[in-house]
Amino acid sequence: MRKDFGEKPYLFPQPVLIIGTYNEDGSANAMNAAWGGIAGADEIIIDLSSHKTTDNILLNKAFTVSVGDVEHLAACDYVGLVSAKNEPRKMEKAGFTTTKSAFVNAPVINELPLTLECELVKVIDGCKYLGVIKNVSADECILGEDGTIDPGKLRAISFDPVHHAYLELGEKVGSAFQDGAALK
């Protein structure tokens, strides 16, 4: 038996995306966004209502998307609770420092170990920001022995829209493009 919930954004996991932009004075800003994801081999889309961040994306035609992690959970939640319009020291209070991306006009948040550096392609329906990924940067602390990103070391968090909770992504449970071959 199944239970219907109606029209709800109940897709699991929902990544915790921290969107980085520059304000008009050049200072860094960030916000927490749950509605976004990969839209193609080199594209990402984020659904945002009107925010200081959306003004900044339109101004700079660029943004970064960092993945929220367990270590910085409180700071990631904080940048979603507080607007830069009301708190000019938002980044400092979150404990975030930034470095300018070498690929786009947007800040890389130093404390978050995985960042997609994106150029705005277009805005769809007034609220969906489509970006092309110009670079992915990863702190060496999340790289495995093979030199690639190790999700276990990243300790990414996802948003649970049902219970308004953050969940740590789990361990490996299978091998893509292999486990299904047993059913051929």
TrEMBL record:
Name the Gene Ontology molecular function terms of this record: FMN binding; oxidoreductase activity, acting on the CH-NH group of donors, NAD or NADP as acceptor
Keyword Disulfide bond attributed: no
Q: Which InterPro entries does the UniProt record give?
A: Flavin_Rdtase-like_dom (IPR002563), Flavoredoxin (IPR052174), Split_barrel_FMN-bd (IPR012349)
Q: Where is the Flavin reductase like domain?
A: 12-126
| Keyword field contains Flavoprotein | yes
SUPFAM superfamilies according to UniProt: FMN-binding split barrel (SSF50475)
Alphabetic keyword roster: Flavoprotein
Q: Which domain of life is it from?
A: Bacteria
Q: Which cofactor does it need?
A: FMN
- Family per record: Belongs to the flavoredoxin family.
Name this protein carries in UniProt: Flavoredoxin
